[in-house]
Amino acid sequence: MPSVSTTARHSAPPRGPLYAIGVLSGLVAAFLIWLIYFKGRMAAPEWVSSLPAANAAFNSLSALCLLGGYLRIRRKYKATHKRFMLAATFFRRCS
Prior knowledge:
There is one protein chain. This protein is mostly helical. It has a domain at 51-95. It has helices at residues 16-38, 51-74, 78-94. Helix 2 runs antiparallel to helix 3 (78-94).
């Protein structure tokens, strides 16, 4: 009976994707440096000033849905709990 080797042969992972990720990361970093330091400042549109209030509202709605979901799961209402959790996730993604 031939003996079976217990050592596994490991091949090196392909380096192509790592190089592509490195190059893409460098390009993104260079673009951000150009955008922040070298491109002139522009005035923000008027609607930008309402974004903090919208973010706070979505966070509040998300917190209320989390609280409602917690209360529902404590009372064993699984379907209602699931709806509250989905709504909380939706509101959190909006902010």
